[in-house]
Amino acid sequence: MQVTIVATQPFQDQRPGTSGLRKKVSEFLQPHYLENFVQSIFDSLPGHEGQTLVLGGDGRFHNREAIQTIVRMAAANGFRRIMIGRGGILSTPAVSCVIRKHRAFGGIILSASHNPGGSHADFGVKYNVGNGGPAPEVLTETIYARSKALTGFRICSADTVDIDRVGETRYGDLSVAVIDPVCDYAELMASLFDFDAIAALFASGFRMRFDAMNGVTGPYAKEILEHRLGASPGTVIRGEPLADFGGIHPDPNLVYARELVADLNGPDGPDFGAASDGDGDRNMILGRQIFVTPSDSLAILAANAGIAPGYRDGLVGVARSMPTSRAVDYVARALGIPCFETPTGWKFFGNLLDAGKATLCGEESFGTGSNHAREKDGLWAVLFWLNILAAQRKSVERIVRDHWRQYGRHYYARHDYEGLDPRVAAAVMSELRKVTLTLPGRNVARHSVTAADDFRYTDPIDGSEAEHQGVRILMSEEARIVFRLSGTGTFGATLRVYLERYERDHLRHGLDVQAELGELAQAASQIARLAERTGRSEPSLVT
Ligand code: VG1
Ligand code: CO
């Protein structure tokens, strides 16, 4: 195969965000845009020659074409073997699993996760390293620096690779292995959870609905839940990965998965409901008449981990992103294990997991995972819940209420202000940084401020620093407000406001969440002068 070096102009906007490079499809379709970014990745990976690369995506618009380009570039850049999910399909957690299992050098995931797909929506590229996890910041910054100076990329002229049939083919020096996207992942799940107990639960008439939201998890959920565990056919809905996700926003939350929520709240609803996002790393957990916040879900999994065979030996520690509620901290304290607080984004958990400091990790944004992979894992969380339900034979609601009674409840919500002018959003944040200096000692929404700062993190393993990770205002009664800007959007800026309040008294655990957090929300909006600066009196999305 002939290698060509194509001259190119660098782009100045290829800085990866919280989770890879995400842009509008139209931007990715500019000549050389994808090629430049992929070359910048390869140029930033010393020692990749002769190695194996894993490649797959969530099936969104442009997935298949991008795969063909990347295969030809991988060949031209000296990779020896490339492993591709059949049809170009691999969920984010499956990529992590395949990299680890087959000791690949790394992997490329084509996804913009929960962002909408289609010709007018979003596309994304993310590089994962040899531990199966997202590239750490030092690497994403190296890739970015390279992309700003790139003058050429390497590509082979080759025929289109058949990615729809499992098997291995040679293209010059490159071996292309098309693999079943589900197989390795399903095997890993079977090693972690008690599939017999879960099958017995389904056999007893337990009913579940899983909304794959037309994203990548459909084939995984159908194989595992319906085929291996015996859930009734039709348990998985919206189970075919579609290039435009059927026009929906594939984000599992109370707003975008509202039909599922309505089902669970209906008169003859199933016992258990779950959903996952476009690339399969997020999860939403529902019981009849109850939504389990992701922060509570993490705490409940931690408290009950010993039930699952894969975690029978106990947890070495837990980790949560800073804006995630402190529910899991209480469990860690009770278990006598450390709880780490990291910046937002799964890349910050990698070192802790590799060093054996944490077993479970989670984020408030519907992300939960463990040391079985180096990505958050939607279906894994669902199977964990099923394992607990199978062992305890209690309702989801009972499990959650018992948990609150034991540990107290963290009322929690996130208010997003989307599509803001980026300059206004940046100004709001810089003003907030100044305001934090004056807040301690003052009163905010009935609470006195005990501390306020701009979160910074020093990685306990390699000492790397991450600054400006969110302004937090800590108050009495464990109330808290956090402000940060999203790093995954493709249009304008999104300000996220995270609200939290702790309630020990179990007689006050059944109150309305938004009402309970109303005063804090109002205070947050006043402190940031949101109405004045953004013209918004309400958030655009509450989750
Ligand atoms: C959001 C979430 C963050 C998550 C990230 C990637 O980032 O807040 O917790 O890790 O998405 O998730 P941001 O910067 O927009 O707040 V996914 O499922 O989109 O890969
Ligand atoms: Co995702």
CATH architecture term of the largest domain: 3-Layer(aba) Sandwich
**Average of the residue pLDDT scores:** 96
The distinct ligands, each listed once, are: alpha-D-glucose-1-phosphate-6-vanadate, cobalt (II) ion
CATH superfamily of the largest domain: Alpha-D-Glucose-1,6-Bisphosphate, subunit A, domain 3
Rg: 23 Å
**CATH fold assignment of the largest domain:** Alpha-D-Glucose-1,6-Bisphosphate, Chain A, domain 3
Main sheet: strand order: 2-6-5-3-4-9-8
Spans of 5+ residues with little confidence (pLDDT < 50)? none
Q: How many helices does DSSP assign?
A: 18
Specify the structural class: alpha/beta
Main sheet summary? 7 strands, mixed
Shape: globular
Q: Quick one: how many beta strands?
A: 27
Query: Strand fraction band?
Result: 25-35%
Helix proportion range: 25-40%
Total count of domains: 3
**What is the CATH class designation of the largest domain?**
Alpha Beta
Layout of helices and strands, plus pairs?
Elements (H helix, E strand, L loop, with lengths): L2 E5 L13 E4 H4 L4 H11 L8 E6 L5 H14 L4 E9 L2 H10 L4 E5 L11 E7 L8 H11 L4 E5 L10 E5 L2 E6 L3 H10 L2 H9 L4 E4 L5 H12 L7 E2 L20 H8 L6 E5 L6 E5 L2 E3 L1 H10 L14 E4 L5 H9 L3 E4 L7 H5 L5 E4 L3 E4 L7 H15 L3 H12 L1 E12 L1 H17 L4 E2 L2 E8 L2 E2 L6 E2 L4 E5 L4 E6 L7 E11 L9 H4 L1 H10 L2 H5 L6 E2 L1
Parallel strand pairs: 3-4, 3-5, 4-9, 10-11, 10-12, 15-16, 15-17
Antiparallel strand pairs: 1-7, 2-6, 5-6, 8-9, 12-13, 13-14, 17-18, 19-26, 19-27, 20-21, 21-24, 22-23, 24-25, 25-26
Helix pairs in contact: 2-3, 2-5, 7-13, 10-11
The protein binds alpha-D-glucose-1-phosphate-6-vanadate and cobalt (II) ion.
The site of alpha-D-glucose-1-phosphate-6-vanadate (VG1) has 18 residues, from loops.
